[in-house]
Sequence to fold (356 residues):
Amino acid sequence: MTKKIAVLAGDGIGPEIVDEAIKVLQALAKDGLDIALEYGLIGGAAYDETGTPLPDETVEISKSADAILLGAVGGYKWESLDISVRPEKGLLGIRSQLNLFANLRPAILYPQLADASTLKPEVVAGLDLMIVRELTGGIYFGQPRGIRTLENGEKEGFNTLVYRESEIQRIGKVAFDIAQKRQGRLCSVDKANVLESTELWRETMTDLAENYSDVELSHMYVDNAAMQLVRAPKQFDVMVTTNMFGDILSDCASMLTGSIGMLPSASLDESGKGMYEPIHGSAPDIAGQNVANPLATILSASMMLRYTLDEPAMADRIEAAVSKVLDQGLRTADIYSEGMTKVGTSEMGDAVVAAL
Ligand code: IPM
Ligand code: MG
Fold:
């Protein structure tokens, strides 16, 4: 049966990198991948056209699709807009409206890129880490929130960090299940020494561990986790954490692999339906110049094949093709080092297609 994929390219480099991932999917279509693409607007591009960063039509297209491929949102152009219509609201809105609570952010170091990391090769060689980030709760969505004026006339900004037991349990289960299929080690990251909401997080993870005798659960405070990620990242197998801590730690983990331009992600709902996107942003400074690295988006398409479309062999082919182009010495600017061949966005996409 034909699988419907909603394509939301977004802003900045979004359209360029999404085009390359689609090239790869279309190449696989020649080998039997049965997909139909439907395009929708999101972020600043949607705001410019419709006055909102998340038009109803985009939500409809995404809800009725089997999977969603997203580029990136945001840019200087929209930074002065009211926060309620900023491009980022489009992304947060679709995560929330589609209940995409489980964000999987793998950080894998391709051996060919060991030199591209700012850390010593021996610290990062062989790195294969999975960050599981809660994506529809916590301080990103907690109420009340806003900016208010106090009686003395001073302004005060406020947000609420709130987690229900059920929210912690469902992300915890996803993380334990993943750890079971990997090395069986799960590190839950919190700030339980200061924040009650994450004290509950820690208790709930500890309770869940009783059902997973084959997974070794540990706990770590987020400040220490940030330090451990750059000190000795290979101690981690799977990490599970809150929305905001996961946002920060996944950027940190990405640099271990040389470039944020390499890292894909999946955001899944309870049934495994998902939205797939690179973890990097819209990079407006390099948009439209054919220099962005499309590999994170191409690898996001591979995650889509693996996690939602049930085509693991095709996912393997994409991952092998990416490894092959790196072996060939092809590098976009962000992962370039001396002696390699510098290529642009579309050349990199073409090379992956050729290597499939
Ligand atoms: C991410 C991004 C988003 C987030 C922004 C663009 C809203 O940084 O996906 O990590 O904070 O979740
Ligand atoms: Mg982020």
